[in-house]
Amino acid sequence: MKRRLEPERLDELPADDPAAIASRRDLVLINAVMRQPAMLARALSSFPQPRVLLDLGGGDGRCLLAAARRLSWRGVQAVIADRQDVVTAQTRTGFAALGWDCTVRRGDVFDAVTELDGGTLVTANLFLHHLDEAALRRLFALLAARAMGLVACEPRGGAFALMASHLVFLLGANEVTRHDAVASVRAGFADRELSGLWPKGWDLKERRGLPFSHLFTARRHAL
Ligand SMILES: C[S@@+](CC[C@H](N)C(=O)[O-])C[C@H]1O[C@@H](n2cnc3c(N)ncnc32)[C@H](O)[C@@H]1O
User: Fold this and answer.
1) What is the C-alpha to C-alpha distance for residues 154 and 46, in angstroms, rounded to an integer?
2) Quick one: how far is CA 216 from the chain centroid?
3) Whose CA is nearest to atom 12 of ligand 1?
4) What is the pTM of this model?
5) Distance (Å) from CA 191 to ligand 1 centroid
6) What is the pLDDT of residues 35-88, one digit of tens each?
7) Which one is predicted more confidently, 193 or 223?
């Protein structure tokens, strides 16, 4: 299935729109059903503890917090990079309880990645699929020049995930989520699509994550 990008409704709604708030709540449940935090945590635990964990398109931070709770790391600076600052006090308290600090880097992810340094490990959960091939190549080149690595957990493209994306109403998802779930899978990944866009000379892993995910890990040699 060839990737097809279309605008997602959550990206266009103001942060305080009730439908956006409800859709971000839906995402917590969808992430849990897709096992995204568990898969992120497992892939992250194969890296040395970073000084900074930068989450691209990190939204309200609850997915990264759920992953952080599965790690034994302490004293990490979590930076949520997103166009909207929707991280609640409760989520910040959750990070603090783990001994992590949480800040929001509001704005476009491309601005955030130009600021990062070599002590930074980068995550992306349900974010990379927003980008077309040229933007992914540009993002990966910036990350490869600066970061320790990238762990991304994205929607898997293909008929099985597409069928499931039409069923998110069964989870009580609202209209925004129902639209975006289908759009996300149409823009999802398969095979070694992301590896082909990453600069040469890195350790790359790319595979299906059951049931509906696509996992990509890029690690600088000798880490
Ligand atoms: C599907 S949501 C995923 C949020 C979060 N990672 C999660 O799993 O709950 C995608 C997020 O990407 C953000 N976003 C989309 N394009 C962006 C960009 N170019 N720069 C920064 N944030 C962006 C949106 O605001 C939204 O919060």
Assistant:
1) 19
2) 11
3) 57
4) 0.97
5) 23
6) 999 999 999 999 999 999 999 999 999 999 999 999 999 999 999 999 999 999
7) 193
The C-alpha atoms of residue 112 and residue 90 are separated, in whole angstroms, by 24
176 CB less than 6 Å from ligand 1?
no
Amino acid, res. 127: F
User: Please, are residues 82 and 106 in contact by the beta-carbon 8 Å criterion?
Assistant: yes
Is residue 126 lining ligand 1, measured as CB closer than 6 Å? yes
Closest C-alpha to ligand 1, atom 14: 57
Residues 86-113: tens digit of each pLDDT: 999 999 999 999 999 999 999 999 999 9
Q: Report the 10 Å Cβ neighbour count for 167.
A: 11
Query: Which contiguous run of DSSP H or E holds residue 90?
Result: helix 89-97
84 CB near ligand 1 (under 6 Å): yes
Among 76, 85, 49, 66, which residue's Cα sits nearest to residue 153? 66
Predicted local distance difference test score (pLDDT) of residue 85: 97
For residue 64, give the nearest of 98, 40, 33 by alpha carbon. 40
| Helical (H) or strand (E) element with 37 | helix 36-44
